[in-house]
Every structure is written in C-alpha cells, then in structure tokens.
Amino acid sequence: MRITSFRRVIALAVILQALGFRAANATDYYVQGPLVAAGVADPGTGAQDNPFRSFWAPMHVLAPGDTLHILAGSYSALLYLTVSGNASAPINIVGDTGMLTQIHTASGNAIQFKAGVSYVSVSYFDVQAAASTASGIATEGASPVHHITIKHNRVHNCGGAGLQLTHADYLSVVKNTVYDNAWLSNGDPSGIDLYQLTNVDSSTTGNHNYIGSNVIYGNANHVASATSGLITDGNGIIVDDSQHTQLNYAAVAPAYLGGTLIENNIIFNNGGRAVHVNRSNNVTIRNNTTYKNNTGPSFVGLYVGEVEAMGSGNVSVYNNILWGNGSGYTSFQAQGSTNIWIDYNVAANVGTPTYIRLTTGTSWGSHSMTADPLFDLASILPATANFHILASSPAVGAGKPGAGAAYDFDGVKRPTIAALGAYE
Fold first, then answer.
1. Could you read off the pLDDT of 190-240 as tens digits, one per residue?
2. Helix (H) or strand (E) segment spanning residue 409
C-alpha cells in the first residue's frame, strides 16, 4: 500500500507539472537594471525587493523549476544561459509581458544558450544584435542543446540570423515575430535557422521540433555569401543540413532522425524562400500562409518556390496558401529530393511553370488549386497586412480531411476539414 501511495504522489506531481503547476520548492528570482560593470560584484540577492544587477549572478543559483524575471528596461549585455532544468521542472527566463524587456547588443549575440543546456524556456523579450555576424537568439554548437522553448519574443534588426539554432533537438519556437534580420552577414543567415539538428536520443517517433504561429518578414541577405559570392539565403525559415553532410560537424554526428513540424506561420517579403528545407529529412509544412517571398536579386527568373526542398527526403507540404512573387517564381520547388508529397495547397500569383517545379515522381496533387485565396488585405507592409481569408475564399474547407493543424494562428479550433493557410 505504501508503494502504491508513493506512485500516486509521483503521478499527481507529473500531472500538476503538465498542467503548468510549479514544484513546491521553485523560486522566483529577479534582475533589474542598471547592470553592474564587468568585474564588479553583484550587490543583489535576486529577491524582488533586492534584484540581481547582472545576468551572470542568477546562473549560479537557478535550479530546475525556477523562474528568472528580467524586469522591464533596456539591457546591452549578453544574456548567456548556462543552466538546465529537467523534464518535470524546466527553467523559465521571462521578460516583461507587457512591454517586452529589451536585450539589444552592439557586438555579439543577444541571447545565447551554452552548449549542452536543456529544458529552458525564454519568453517576452525584444531582441536585437546589431553586429554584422551576430544573431538575436543563438545556441552554441559544441554539444546539442535540447528541450528549448522560445516564445512570445520580438527578434529584429540582427546582422546575422534572428534565431540561429545550431546542433539542437526538441525545439519549440512559437508566437515570435522575427523581422529585418540577416542583412549584414556574409554567412548566409535567415530569419529562423535550424542548422544541423542533432539527435539527443534514438527516438524517431513524432515531431521533435515545432515551429508554429510565428510572423516572419523582411529577413534578407544584402551581402553576398563568403563561399559562393551570391545571395543564396535570407529565408523566412530554413531547416538546413540535418543530414550532416557538411564537414564541420558530419564527422562526429549521424544524420538527424527526428521530425520537424512547421505550421500556422505567416511568412512574407523575405529575401529567400518562405520555408527552405536543405539536405534535411522528415519535415512537415502545413497550414502556413506565405506571400511574396524570394525578393533577393539572385532569385529573379530562377523559378524558386515559396517552399523549396533541396537534397531532402520525406517532406510533406499541405494545407498551405503559397502566394508567389510573380512571373519567374513558383509555389513549390524540389531539387534532388525523394519522397516528397505535396497536395491540398492553393497557389497564387505565380508564373510559368504555373504551380510547381518538380523532381521526378512528385506531383502538384489532385486536391491542390491555383486561385486567389482572397485575403482580407494582402500587403508586404506589416502595419497594414491582414492575411485572414474572406468567408468566400476557396481556401475555406479545402484542407486534407483530419490532417490540419488542430488550432489556427489565432487559437481558433479548426474543424475536421481545415481551411488552407494559417487562419480559419
């Protein structure tokens, strides 16, 4: 009986954690500026009435289940995350939920996860990294980070990528606004870059990574690649080299086994593709709305797709609205890829070939269409763009039965046969 009671207690603890209840011994710590100078001892204790005055001091006390509140203000220091939570008690790093705490750096990344960190959530920050090679939120690559959540942040005007998530597994990137990044670097950055996803276990079940309900625009390469001399990226989202073909990491890691789900994102006016899957496997792209991407000068006339798979395998593309950038562009392109399935999409504003540029064995799908999806107000201007669809839109009720995102961008529960795009 005592064993049974113990098991019930453990089961209850797991249920409470799943419902969002924190461990009884979890502690709230606080940081408030101005921060002390480098090399100066932090005078704070981390209590709400005596907050820390540095980003490094909390890293010596945070434990699984704790929350670090970085209070409203503008901070110019790197937020370097060196601590881990665990599966039942992640560590939460939280900015001001109303104003968004600003972390703006003139040199180096703004928020960075130390190699190997796990079970950490970062939310409610306004992030900018102005240096030419710097990213807004980045992971170190010496060993994989995993079970990382990045949500409700605004990441913008970073010289490098908005989010550069290298050698990672079990990522959740949700409800962020990522814009005007990747302009200054010659390292081919993008808005959200998942580079060489890396196994932390042998599981092939389900989707390890979720990229959902983000707004992504204006990310572009304005400086040619250091390797090719061309502008090749500046994508909204890229899943890059999960097969580990590139030598800087292939020698020490096998190809990635997990799946990645990209859904309910609104992606427009980026220099490269809305979603680019490059040398990566097991990616599902559904219920996204893309509009007039591929604005970079190197893409004109190449029939690049709003969504593109290159050298990839097991990629599914369905329930999307794919509005091209005009003549010389397509909705979808696949090169050197296998096991590609694309159907239940609507293409608009594309040239010749009208819908798609195909690899052998891939077809546009009998349930796909070319039509005006009838947006409320289509625009590349973020202040005025409204990509909700009208009630008369051909995208309404046109999704794959039983296979759409459970909820739309606004959190509206979708019917069994969902609308195409990010909104019901």
1. 999 999 999 999 999 899 999 999 999 999 999 999 988 989 999 999 999
2. none
pLDDT of residue 249: 67
Ranges of the chain whose pLDDT falls below 70: 1-24, 249-252, 352-355, 360
CA–CA distance from 311 to each of 103, 125, 244, 322, 340 (Å)? 37, 35, 12, 21, 11
CB atoms within 10 A of CB 337: 23
* DSSP character string of 325-340: EETT-EEEEEES-EEE
Q: Are 234 and 271 in contact (CB under 8 A)?
A: yes
Task: Render the burial of 153-165: b for 16+ CB within 10 Å, e for the rest.
Answer: bbbbbbbbbbbbb
The architecture in CATH of the region 62-369 reads 3 Solenoid (2.160)
CA pair distance 6, 2, nearest whole angstrom? 6
**How far is residue 166's CA from residue 152's CA, in Å, rounded to a whole number?**
20
CA atoms within 13 A on the CB side of 97: 1
Length of the chain: 424
Please, what is the average pLDDT of the chain?
92
**Domain ranges in the chain?**
62-369
